[in-house]
Amino acid sequence: MASTSRKSLDSGKLPRGQACFNCKRRKRKCDGNLPCSQCSHLNIEDDCEYADTGKRSLTHILQEDIDRLENRIHHLEHPHEPAGEHSFPLHQPYHASIGRSKSTTPGPSHHHSATPTQLWMTPSEPPRDLIVQLIDGFLAYSSEFGFFLDCTRFRQSALLPFPIGHQSRPSPALLSVVYLWGLRLSGQPDLMTQEPTFLARALDLSSKGLSGNHPHKVMHTLQAEVLLSYFFFSSGRALEGKYHASAAISLSLSSSLHLIRSENHPPPGVLPPPADAVEEGERIHAWWAVIILDSAFAVGLRETPGFAHRESLSVVDTPWPLEFEGYAEGLLAPNARYSQTIHNFVNGVPTFDAGMSTVAMLAKASLLWLQADELAGSWKPGMSGTAAATFSNDFKRLDGVIERFRESLVPPNQIPRPTPAMTRTLVVAHSIAHSATVRLLSLFAHADMLAKRRRLAAARLVLGIIAAVPLRHFRYVNPIMGTVWASACGVFLEEIQALDALHRGPPREEELNLRTFLSRAVVSISAFEMTFPLLQSQISPIREGCRQNGIAL
């Protein structure tokens, strides 16, 4: 290896303090070459590094971490021993504008504070003020990303004054993913640049989530997997999102979350009995969060659902979810038992469990959307005989179920005691339900005038919702909405093109109305364009389609 000299040109001696890191650490005389003779003698030429002006090497960073950890271990083992002169402060690796925890152990002034790239290289958490900011920022929109735990309980336990890993706090896997989402939702560039490091930590801890003895490790690991799946899907990284969705499906099934309160099967024994009604509610919400995740993104990404709904409808006995306060209020009767929840719904079988909460509405809408997509995908031109008759019967049944469900949906502005999360959930439920009709009727819209009109009416309802609902609580929305909006806008563009081809010359009133309506809707949708990469990739083609058709935005 060629050697490069770093010696001073004036004196021929190495400037003071400019030895390589290995020689400094081992207190050896360094000749200033790259690699130096000491490192060459030890056969560690590749590790020979110097401190350039304004830059710290990876070796330096790692060595600081090692020194801090060793110092911290020594301090924990000898709590009454005064700090020595070489103690290292436990710096928090955050930008000064965000806030930095104050070390209780003063350190020498020549030690550099940690950089953002060091985040999570030590077992410490962010400073408390940043923890509060990340958690509150996440919880404000957690309903959009499959968060199924009680928000109040989660926040209280997350902010307890115990170290990460303490059994009274959420599991490290879950906390790390919540911090990751908090970074993304903060909208602050200096925080968001640290996403890769947070993500690496979250993935590592989630992979180990089921080990150890945390009392809620199963539910918290499941929650972490759901959140990671949404994180990757919203980032446009479908393969990784599907991987974590599959992990969530597997864990929910192995934990028998589909058999809660089942009248057909004995109580599942994988999880201990819930401590109270709220904890049972969390488990019920967990099951439906997985169903929503799997169903919606199977349609949105044109993927096969991880959970084989069509073949396994009859094995789901878990009741529809209530609003969370309903569990604390005792609305779930202690002795109530349930059976074939999904099977009864998709087949229009009346039951005493109506499932009228906002989350239940979203789960039902997602299931119907998946059913419509699967049925539409099974259609083959020229189908005849028994296959055609079966398809026709299935089409009529599903069309009827979707229509009745859409009629039963409570308008977002009419829900009692609404919260921003409930309003957003119901907006998504309405939009997906109408999108199910759009998908189902797309098969025959070109040949059947009634189907064409009904499809356009459903698409109008999808776009009308987002154009009419105040956006003050919609800074972020479920990333699956990009698929829903793209589908509805596609119907409008198709109708506009058909009318333009039919009537040459200036657009007539019907076409002008369609153009005006679509323009207003796209302006509202564009407010979400930069929130997630997935939404941006789905909304950009909508705007391009409008531009090509001369629709002003």
Task: Write up what this structure looks like.
The protein has helices spanning 21-26, 37-41, 58-77, 128-139, 151-158, 172-186, 189-192, 195-207, 217-234, 238-254, 277-300, 309-312, 324-328, 341-346, 358-378, 385-408, 420-441, 449-468, 481-502, 509-526, 533-548, and strands at residues 4-5, 33-34. The protein is mainly α and 553 residues long. It has a domain at 1-79. Strands 1-2 form a two-stranded antiparallel sheet. The chain starts with a strand and ends in a 5-residue tail after the last helix.
Order of helices and strands: EHEHHHHHHHHHHHHHHHHHHHH
* Main pleated sheet: 2 strands, antiparallel
Low-confidence runs of at least 5 consecutive residues? 5-12, 53-59, 83-123
Strand order of the largest sheet: 1-2
- Summarize model confidence as the mean pLDDT: 82
Q: Distance N terminus to C terminus? A: 61 Å
The general outline is: globular
The secondary structure category is: mainly alpha
Task: Please work out how many helical segments DSSP would assign.
Answer: 21
How many β-strand stretches?
2
- Helix percentage range: 40-55%
- What Rg do the Cα atoms give? 29 Å
Subcellular location: Nucleus
Region (Disordered): 79-122
Domain Zn(2)-C6 fungal-type: 19-50
Main location: nucleus
